[in-house]
Amino acid sequence: MSDATKVAAAASSRDPAVGLAAVASLRGLLESLEELQVSNARAQGWSWQQIADVLRVSRQAVHKKYRRYGF
Amino acid sequence: MFERFTREARQVVVEAQEEARSRKADEIRTEHLLAALYTVRDDVALAVLEQLGVDETDVLRDIDRLHSGEPAALDAEALSTIGIDLDEVRRQVEEAFGPGALDRTRAALGGPAGRLLGHIPFEGPAKKALELSLREARHLGHDHIGAGHILLGLIHTEGGAAHHVLAARGVGLERTRAAVEQLARREAG
Q1: Would you state the pLDDT for residue B3?
Q2: What is the domain class of B7-69+115-188 according to CATH?
């Protein structure tokens, strides 16, 4: 990241374009990390219920989201 | 419901899936059906759009701008504004799961599982538009559902993006109906 960008980012912290882009990207990162961890947990024999408990979501939610991946 | 669709109309439905896939959408939406009309090059639908002064390039550009619901690509600069160092996250993840682990997830590749497994469902308004294309054909007294009727179905479906893309260019149901009817009559006669 260039210095100019850094300055622009620092100077515009209340700029919705910057803030919303950060949130969108954070969501993308979250999705990737969750997928990796769920896949890893399944590979290690965890049940959907165990995964759901640690993620603090319902078993149905996590199962519905990831069963199509074949984990 | 596709028995009475013409070859071109069926092709539009098939191509809409390709349009959705290439745009990394998780469902086939009305704008994908609209874009598909341009790939199938059916005489009626495209002739009507041209007659109504709708420019293909403009429409496709508008469709490309509709990116709602698509997962955001990981943006290192955006994340750095909230103190997250994406390179460091990537490094740590790769240490545990191997090179490219973070960027190889389905989420990072841009779409839900369905897309990668080949099956993309139709969203509600797209389904409705196809149903309405049947009704439009019947309304005009036509036996078969062609691409022109799909165009009418898309305009008729106010909940879909295609309706809005076309409405922004002044394309309304009544005028389009008249144009489709006229062209069909000319082809029949």
Answers
A1: 86
A2: mainly alpha
Residues of B in contact with A19 (CB under 8 A): 81
pLDDT tens per residue, range B24-53: 788 899 999 999 999 997 778 999 999 999
Q: Which of A19, A40, A68 sits opposite B113 (nearest CB)?
A: A68
Neighbours of B19 (CB within 10 A): 24
The partner residue sitting opposite B107, judged by closest CB among A18, A22, A31, is: A31
Nearest CB to A27 within list B72, B77, B101: B72
> Nearest-CA distance from B76 to chain A in Å?
8
Residue of A nearest to B105 (CA): A32
Rounded mean pLDDT, A15-28: 82
Residue A5 has pLDDT above 60, yes or no: no
Q: Where are the domains of chain B?
A: 7-69+115-188, 76-109
Alpha-carbon span B161 to B169, nearest angstrom = 13
Q: Search chain B and give the residue with CA nearest A67.
A: B113
pLDDT band at B69 (very low <50, low <70, confident <90, very high): very low
CA angle, residues B32, B23, B70, in degrees to nearest 5: 105
